[in-house]
Amino acid sequence: MSARGAIENVLNRYSIAYDDNDMAEMADTFAEDAVLTMRIAGGDLIGPFEGKPAVMKLMTDSLASQTDQRRHVTTNVAIRKETEDAATVTSYLTLISVQDGKATLLSTAKYEDELVREGDGAWRFTKRHIELDLPY
């Protein structure tokens, strides 16, 4: 698999893992020292959540508060900078909620990511910033 394909695969694995409540799979997309931040609708910066345990607690708590089925759709993947073992990536998120037989657009967002290729050859997030356009 090309580096681009492997990087896109990490973005998509993260989304599918969240939607499937597969926290082991999601955890595998983050490096041990990963940092996650977010901002909702131009508000204050939320985070940083530092280290894989803090990032995963945020994800687990967020998922536990939901009663709907989420679908995270990642598009417009642009690799801004790439070396053999690191990449900076920008992409878009379309966040859809499915509940009571109805699909509803919850928000859109921009992801700003930094990934590294670790010793096992796998690409993982070291930094992820989520800039949500709307509160949900």
UniProtKB/TrEMBL annotation:
<feature type="domain" description="SnoaL-like">
    <location>
        <begin position="2"/>
        <end position="129"/>
    </location>
</feature>
<dbReference type="InterPro" id="IPR037401">
    <property type="entry name" value="SnoaL-like"/>
</dbReference>
<dbReference type="Pfam" id="PF13577">
    <property type="entry name" value="SnoaL_4"/>
</dbReference>
<dbReference type="InterPro" id="IPR032710">
    <property type="entry name" value="NTF2-like_dom_sf"/>
</dbReference>
<protein>
    <recommendedName>
        <fullName>SnoaL-like domain-containing protein</fullName>
    </recommendedName>
</protein>
